[in-house]
């Protein structure tokens, strides 16, 4: 739930509604929430704490903060633009703004988590722009990727619930059902890294 402040000039988010990849203002700087840990108190009457790890999108530094459920942070003001990931050039990732066709780069080291799910020429991404400066890339919640290496599928084991590791086209390794083979496209949740299902044509 997003709450407008008095005057409607900005939107604030209560800690109980924090989500991974949400961009909020911490100490006046835009931060993207990378991790959330909910600490439920054992004592009666004590407040639940929401501990977050967030990255400053301008300085790239990481901070850790704790908030009560009713504490609020302003949602950061930024512009979203559709972009396409083109390719990796050494330690830089090259993107293209789909509205202007302008290209820009971001450091690969700062996008290690997202890069696990990104293929060359991948569309459907968004860039977050602050003061006309691209500061972060948001990828879809789910992506479809090809299995390029895994142990041979075991026929008849589709109902056992057992899994095995599979290497996807991006190099990411995910646990998939034991009966799946190579050259199959699977859907992966980029928020958790989990296998969601097989993609049928």
Search tags:
single chain, 201 residues, mainly beta, SH3 type barrels, OB fold (Dihydrolipoamide Acetyltransferase, E2P), 3 domains, five-stranded antiparallel beta sheet, flat, disordered N terminus
Layout: helices, strands, pairs:
Elements: E1 3-4, E2 11-14, E3 23-26, E4 29-39, E5 49-56, E6 62-68, E7 72-74, E8 79-89, E9 92-97, E10 103-107, H1 112-115, E11 122-130, E12 133-138, E13 142-150, E14 163-168, E15 173-177, E16 185-189, E17 195-198
Antiparallel strand pairs: 1-2, 2-7, 3-4, 4-5, 5-6, 8-9, 8-11, 9-10, 11-12, 13-14, 13-16, 14-15, 16-17
State the separation between the terminal residues, measured CA to CA. Answer: 37 Å
Order of strands, widest sheet: 10-9-8-11-12
Strand content: over 45%
Q: How is the biggest beta sheet arranged?
A: 5 strands, antiparallel
Mean pLDDT comes to 86
Q: Give the overall form.
A: flat
SSE-based structural type: mainly beta
**Overall number of structural domains:** 3
Estimate the helix proportion, in percent. Answer: under 10%
Q: Tell how many strands the DSSP assignment holds.
A: 17
Given this structure, which CATH class of the largest domain is correct? Mainly Beta
Instruction: Give me the CATH architecture of the largest domain, please.
Output: Roll
């Amino acid at each position: 739930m997003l709450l407008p402040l008095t005057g409607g000039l900005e939107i604030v988010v209560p800690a109980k509604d924090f989500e991974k990849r949400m961009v909020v203002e911490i100490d006046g700087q835009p931060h993207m929430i990378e991790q959330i840990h909910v600490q439920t108190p054992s004592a009666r009457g004590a407040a639940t704490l929401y501990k977050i790890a967030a990255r400053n999108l301008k300085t790239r530094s990481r901070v850790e903060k704790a908030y009560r459920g009713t504490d609020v942070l302003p949602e950061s003001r930024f512009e979203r633009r559709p972009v396409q990931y083109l390719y990796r050039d050494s330690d830089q990732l090259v993107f293209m703004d789909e509205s202007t066709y302008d290209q820009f780069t971001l450091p690969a080291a700062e996008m290690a988590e997202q890069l696990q799910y990104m293929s060359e020429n991948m569309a459907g991404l968004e860039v977050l722009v602050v003061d006309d400066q691209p500061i972060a890339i948001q990828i879809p919640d789910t992506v479809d990727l090809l299995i390029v290496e895994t142990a041979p599928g075991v026929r008849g084991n589709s109902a056992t619930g057992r899994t095995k590791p599979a290497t996807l086209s991006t190099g990411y390794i995910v646990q998939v059902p034991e009966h799946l083979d190579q050259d199959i496209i699977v859907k992966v949740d980029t928020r958790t890294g989990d296998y969601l299902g097989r993609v049928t044509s």
